[in-house]
Amino acid sequence: MKKYKFGVLGAGNMGTAIAEGAVRAGRFAPEQVLMFNRSEEKRAAHAAKGYAVTGDYTEVYAESEIVLLAVKPQNFDEILPNLAKYEGDKPLVVSIAAGVTFAKLEGALGADTAMIRVMPNTPLMLGEGATQLVKNAAATDKQLSELCELFNTMGVTVTFEQENMLNEVIPYAGSAPAYLYAYADAFVQSAKQHGINEDDALTLICQTMIGSAKMLLRRDKTPAELIRAVCSPGGTTIEGMKVLEDRDLYGIVSEACDKCIKRAYELG
Fold it and tell me: Which of 31, 78, 95, 101 counts the most CB atoms within 10 A of its CB?
C-alpha cells in the first residue's frame, strides 16, 4: 500500500495546476498528494495549502500510486537512473514531458512499468485545457480511462493509440494557444491604429473568440458555413476575407503546423 494517492515530481506551474485541479474535483485530498520541488520556499507554500511535500524526488516515486513526471525534459537524464533503483511496487507513471518517449522511459524504468504520456496545454491552468493521452503496453485501458476522467475535470481530452500522434497533434492544442494569442494581438494592434483603446480591443476580441468557439462547438454548422453566414455579399467582412484568401491564410497556417510537427520529431 502506497502512502500517497498522487505524487508530483516537479511541482512547477503545470504540475501544481494538475494537482490542484485534481483536488478541486474531489479526486484526492491535499494530504493524499505528495509534491516535490527543489525550492524550499515553494515546498513551504505547498505545505501551507495542506499538501505533503518533499525535497527527495525518489520518495515521490516510491510512495505514490500515481507519479506525475513534470520536470523539464532535459532533467530526465538525471532523474531516471535514480528512479530505476527502486525495487518495490511500481506506480503508474504519467509523463507530461514533450519529446520524452516511451522508449526512453521504459529503457530506464522497465517495459513492465505502466505509463501514460499526457500532453496538456497552458489553458489547463484555468481549467480549460485540451489534453491528449496515449498509454504504453503495460498500462491498462482502465488506467487510461481513469486518467482521462481526471483531466476532463480540467478541460477536454483526446486519446490516441499510437505514440507518434502526440507529435502530430502538437500544433492543434499544445502550441495552438501561442498562435491564437498572435492572431488576437494582431487584431489589437490594428485596433489601436484606428483609435480604439487597447484594453477595449482586447476585451472585444477575446469575447468574440469565446463566442465563436462556442458556435463551432455546437457542430450544427461547418466552419465554412459559419464564415459564409457572416460574409454578406458586398458587405464589410467579405472585403477582409478577400485579403486573407489573397495572402493564403490557410497555406500559412498549414506551413506553421508542419514546421511545428517537424520540430517535435527532431526533439523526440
Answer: 95
Residue 99 pLDDT > 90? no
> What is the band of 214 on the pLDDT scale with cuts at 50, 70, 90?
very high
CATH-assigned architecture of domain 4-162: 3-Layer(aba) Sandwich (3.40)
Express each pLDDT in 163-190 by its tens digit: 999 999 999 999 999 999 999 999 999 9
In the chain, CATH 1.10.3730.10 sits at 176-267
User: pLDDT grade, residue 53 (50/70/90)?
Assistant: very high
- Helix (H), strand (E), coil (C) string for the chain: CCCEEEEEECCCHHHHHHHHHHHHCCCCCHHHEEEECCCHHHHHHHHHCCCEEECCHHHHHHHEEEEEECCCHHHHHHHHHHHCCCCCCCCEEEECCCCCCHHHHHHHHCCCCCEEEEECCHHHHHCCEEEEEEECCCCCHHHHHHHHHHHHCCEEEEECCCCCHHHHCHHHCCCHHHHHHHHHHHHHHHHHHCCCCHHHHHHHHHHHHHHHHHHHHHCCCCHHHHHHHHCCCCCCHHHHHHHHHHCCHHHHHHHHHHHHHHHHHHHC
Threshold 0.85, pTM exceeds: yes
